[in-house]
Structures are given as C-alpha cells and as structure tokens.
Structure prediction request, 194 residues.
Amino acid sequence: MTSQKSPRVTAHVLLAAAAAASLALTACGGGSAQSGSPVTVTVTPTVTASPKQSSGKAKTSEPAKPTSDVVGRTYDFGTVTDLKDVGGTPVLVLDRWTWKGLDDAKLARDGVPLSPFKGRPFTNQNDKLVYRIPVTADARVLYHHCVKEGEPQQTRSATVKEMAALRKGEDLVLVRLDDQGRAVAVDNLPGCPS
Prediction:
C-alpha cells in the first residue's frame, strides 16, 4: 500500500510559504518609494548581570606600613612631640635637638651622654622639622629621674606613651635606632642636672 498526499495540503503549504516571503520583502522596504532615506535605530540596553552576593565581610584596606625618616643614623636626640599609631605600630614624632659642641654626624653615630649634666648643653635650633621613627615591638624603654640634685638617679621601665607625655625638664630623649631607622631603645635624659 502506498500513501497518497492530498493535493490540497500541498497547495496550502506552498501558498503559505509564498505569502511569508512576500511579507518579508515588503517589511524590508523592498517596494518603498523612499529607499535611500536614513534609517533610525533605537537600542535600549538590558542589564542581565546580577550583583555579586556579599560575603558579609567588608573589605578593609591594608594599613599603611610605617616608614622611618631617620634611616642611616644609629641615634637620634630630641623631644617627642607626638605619638602616632600606623598599622598597629607606635611611631614617635621627634623634634630633633643638638648637643652644643657635638657635631650631628657624631651624635648620629654615638649618641649623647645619659648621665646628669651641668647647665644646658643642648639646644633646639629648629622646632619646625620633625622626624617619624617607628618603634619595634621589643624596644627597651627606660625612664630616668632624680628626685633632687645630688641624689642618685632612679631608673625604671616605661612605655613609649609615657615618654611622649614627659614633662618639661625630663622630656629630652635619646633614641637608639636599627638599620631600618626603627627605635630599639628609648631613654630620657634624667631631669637632675648636677
């Protein structure tokens, strides 16, 4: 047995295909009298990206790494004008002083005497310049004090915060530095001139 196709179905299919092709040509402007006129196309963007899911943790920038203004010196000397925290590291802000008759290069290499002194052998020649000195976590900090002239000097461990808050007369400090310009030892000059 053979199947026979209805001539009607085939004619309907051909007629539908011809109508679709005719519509397609007309929609493209095939028979338009104004062929060559500019065509305006409007595009509306559609955002398809979805926002990233938050992990609940806010990103924080890495804290700044403290840098030293005194790299190359072994010692520095002066008063602490401020104490800052940079990325969890204490940083002394030092107003550098000079020791009369002592060249700065020698002071930077050998420091100044920490014993009681006569008169005022030090001076502040420039209170506008300050130097930032990071303090190592294991720095040795000593507070030296005399109750009155002629009595022996007393010494105890202290903190850099205490050194930053010393009163006038005891606020001069000698800072020993490592090769990166960080404070590894901080001593104040005893406030008991002989």
Notes: The CA atoms of residues 128 and 172 lie 17 Å apart. The longest strand covers residues 131-145. The helical segments are 7-27, 104-110, 160-164. The radius of gyration is 42 Å.
